[in-house]
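Structure request: Lipase/esterase, Micromonospora andamanensis.
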Amino acid sequence: MPSDPRAVLTRPAPEPDATVAYGEHPDQIADLRRPAGSGPPQPLVVVVHGGFWRAEYDRRHTGPLASALAALGYPVAQLEYRRTGQPGGGWPGTLTDVLAGVSALPGLAEAALPGQVTSTPPVLVGHSAGGHLALYAAAHAPGAVAGVLALAPVADLAEAYRLDLDAGAVAALLGGGPADVPERYAATDPRSLVPLRPRTVVMHGTLDQQVPIDISRNYVALARAAGADIRLIELPECEHFGLIAPDSSAWPEVTSALRSLHEDH
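Returned structure:
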């Protein structure tokens, strides 16, 4: 594993096999990757990238993850969306983009990669802020999501605001704190949206310095108490970025969890 865990954010990856648009804005797109092998068509895996919802982070840093999943035989879409710091990003555009993309991508991928993708609901793999967006999509469009693998998700927006994660990232997304825009937190905070219907696995490294693991511990406990089919996998010796790095010690755990979700449907 590289000495700097953040190196995965700038690591090159093979070009995607196709790019499709689910809206008219230049960021309402997704990169598609064909599954290796020649098996029957499969449900799509939609990767929702993190970066604290900010414009400076885009889908390209999930290229190594997406290409590695495609090499394992999964059809993969790397979802892009409008982010804070650009027109239309933040509330509500970031959230409505993800909902629209998740709903449209299986059909778009089936057309772009004929014979390799089914148009059935996808499994979502979301990292960090992308984990929040995956949980949000599963809560608001449960029929469009088969399962969620949330990697170090920002699963408590009010607590993330209180902790000032990434210097005001939640306030930039929602336009203020819980006391300022309570209705926005009620609509978007995963803790307000339990229980999720889709089966969910949350994975978090105990050494995470970007998103404290207690956020996942508390969210999963709350969701389980509400009746959700959810489990938490804690990874000792893993920090924030190893979860999306195919050469990390966490990678076999990530692929095992995805396999369990993907094979369910």
